[in-house]
Structure formats: C-alpha cells, structure tokens
Amino acid sequence: MGQVVMYGSVSVDGFIADDGDRPGPLFDWLVGGDVPLDDGGVLRVSRASYDYTRPYWDRIGATVVGRRSFDLADGFDGTPPSGVEHVVVVSHRGPPEGWDPAAPFHFIDGVEGAVAAARVLAGRRVVEVSAGDIGGQALDAGLVDEVRMDVVPVVLGSGRRFFGAVHAPHLLEDPDEVIEGDRVMHVRYRVRRPSA
Q1: Helices (H), 32-178
Q2: Does residue 65 contact residue 90 with C-beta atoms inside 8 Å?
Q3: Rounded percentage of the chain residues whose pLDDT exceeds 90
Q4: C-alpha 184 chain-centroid distance
Q5: In a domain, 196, yes or no
Q6: Which uninterrupted H or E stretch holds 41?
Q7: Whether the Cβ atoms of residue 45 and residue 54 lie closer than 8 Å to each other
Q8: Cα separation of 111 and 66, whole Å?
Q9: Is there a domain that residue 146 lies in?
C-alpha cells in the first residue's frame, strides 16, 4: 500500500480557510507564476513550486475529503481535481440527488473506512487526505505517514484549522524538505511513530 499524506495550503497562523470557508489568498501561489501546473492553463506556479508539486500530484491515486469540502466545491463537477483518479468523500450521506454513478467518487461513513477504501483504490500510489477536520481525524487515528504544507505568508486570524481539532499532541520529524516558491514555502514532514 502507498503512503497516506495529509496535504493543504495553510496560513502562517495555521488556517486553511477563513470563518466563511473562503481560502482567500491561500491559493494565490497557484495562479501567480509562469509555469503551467496542469493542462487546464489556470494553475500557473513558479518553477520551484512546479518541481515540488507536480511530481507529488502525479503520485496521488486517491484523495480523501470531507463532505463539507465536497459540497463547497460543488462536487468538483464530478471530475476529481488535479488528475487524481478517485475521490473518497467522508460522509454520513450518500451522493447528491442526480449524481452520476459512474463518477469516480466514493461516499464512505467515517474517516478510518474512507482511508481504508482510498488505500485499496490507490494501490501503491499515494493516498492524499485533505487538511482540516478530516486530516486531523486521520492523524489522530494514526493513519497519516506524512504531512505536506504549502505555507502562505498571510495571517487569517481565525477560521478552519489545518489540523482540525486534534485530540492529542503528535510529533513530526524534522522537515524532510523545505522549498521556497513565489508567495509560498513548501514543507514536508514525516509523522513520528511511537517507539515500540
């Protein structure tokens, strides 16, 4: 099975969105560069951000998101973002009315079941868990192998926390990688496992 990675853009004070669920300037680095990040032409980043982000995105086999993110993104119009093959939605509810059953979205009740389903779907590829409440739940459950943060130089003051409402301290290893892009710093940490 592949790695489970918690991922998201985050303000320097630890938020992934403001109180109204708006990311504000957190995604500016994704559209402010001169190197196309995907085939759509909208996402354009610096060369350093491309060299860090594109290889990671190419390794993702499935993404786990919460129902809140799914609804805010209007179900991604039934197409997984960034070329990901499958999206697993943590939800007590099934798909929306009129949802295309052929769309590669899977609705699973509970974060542990969602990560398990995503691991099967991803095979040896990476399972990405979105930052926020779902990511924090996965971290609390011991399911996350690595944390990736795109740290943006902005202070939001309040909003949705990167780690959601984690219930205990979690130690991370020293950064494996720190890459400076334009208006973003990419940081990657392995999750420290308790000694046996």
Answers
A1: 47-59, 67-72, 111-122, 133-140
A2: yes
A3: 83
A4: 16
A5: no
A6: none
A7: no
A8: 9
A9: yes
In a domain, 120, yes or no: yes
Structurally, the chain folds into a number of domains equal to: 1
Q: Are 113 and 45 in contact (CB under 8 A)?
A: no
Does residue 195 belong to any structural domain of this protein? no
CATH, residue 176:
3.40.430.10
Residue 4, SS3 per DSSP: strand
Distances, alpha carbon 181 to alpha carbons 19, 74, 86, 88, 123, in Å: 27, 29, 28, 30, 31
Q: Rounded to an integer, what is the distance from CA 39 to the centroid of its chain? A: 20
Residue whose C-alpha is closest to residue 105's, from 60, 132, 75 = 75
The single residue listed with the structure tokens 């459950």 is 141
Query: Which amino acid, residue 164?
Result: G
Grouped pLDDT means (10 residues each) for the chain, 196 residues: 94 97 95 92 95 96 95 88 90 91 94 97 97 97 97 97 93 96 98 77
In terms of residue numbers, what domain contains 116? Answer: 4-190
The partner residues of 9 in beta bridges, in order of sequence, read: 150
Q: Which amino acid is at 131?
A: A
Opening angle at CA 67, ends 103 and 2, nearest 5 = 70
